[in-house]
Amino acid sequence: LAKTTQPISMDSYEGQEVNITCSHNNIATNDYITWYQQFPSQGPRFIIQGYKTKVTNEVASLFIPADRKSSTLSLPRVSLSDTAVYYCLVGDSGSYNTDKLIFGTGTRLQVFP
Amino acid sequence: SQTIHQWPATLVQPVGSPLSLECTVEGTSNPNLYWYRQAAGRGLQLLFYSVGIGQISSEVPQNLSASRPQDRQFILSSKKLLLSDSGFYLCAWRGVNYGYTFGSGTRLTVV
User: Fold this and answer.
1) B79: closest CA among B59, B57, B64?
2) What CATH number does the domain located at A9-112 have?
3) A40 touches chain B (CB under 8 A)
4) How far is CA A47 from CA A33, B33, B96, in A?
5) Radius of gyration for the alpha carbons in chain B, expressed in angstroms and rounded
């Protein structure tokens, strides 16, 4: 499983766009990139997943360059409720019987008023 | 729709006592099931995962064990708890599509 590297923490203010970059230099051809959000004393929640280029849903966008060695989670106009830890993971979603999510330390995002 | 249930939400146990945490999944069949532990202020550590009834893979040698007696039931156990077993325990499942769903977690404090 490819290892990921993220900033330990980030600060932002309400209404700003936040971009969290994740490095995954050893990503494999079949690996997808997935981001999770975790609030204190809760389980992680799936945010977005992508393989290449750009993916957008109602809460975030995920940008993946052509070489796929990094990815950027973009949160538009953050609010105080976006204060959480964000995890970037890579894994082969096609390997149903063998895959297992290995979490790194994540990025702790603090949003200020 | 699929749901995952995990209980209890909080638990305080003395050192040396046994432990049993239960996780059940509804609305799906033959899910992959996982147990994670999160120490205070730390990331998630994968403890066990199971791809089917009776099939358990251990990721970290420790004082804990896991069992899967039924397709949608995953149990985390210990015969004698240690202080270092304190933490936030999370159960998760994965179906045939991508994306993992986590339970609400159990906060275990060993005293």
Assistant:
1) B64
2) 2.60.40.10
3) no
4) 11, 20, 18
5) 13
Shortest Cα distance from A101 to chain B (angstroms)? 8
- pLDDT of res. B40: 81
Contacts of B97 in chain A (CB under 8 A): 93
Dump pLDDT digits (tens) for B10-64. Answer: 999 999 999 999 999 998 888 889 999 998 878 888 899 998 999 999 888 678 9
What phi and psi, each to the nearest 5 degrees, are found at residue A7? -65, 145
> What is the total residue count of chain B?
111
Residue in B93, B80, B99, B92 with CA at minimum distance from that of residue B44? B92
Q: What distance in Å separates the CA atoms of residue B51 and residue B31, rounded to the nearest whole number?
A: 7
The CATH superfamily of B3-110 is: Immunoglobulins (2.60.40.10)
pLDDT in the model for residue A72:
97
* Segments making up each domain of chain B, as ranges: 3-110
Give B1→chain A minimum CA distance, Å: 16
Q: Cα–Cα distances in Å, from B8 out to B43, B92, B104?
A: 21, 15, 10
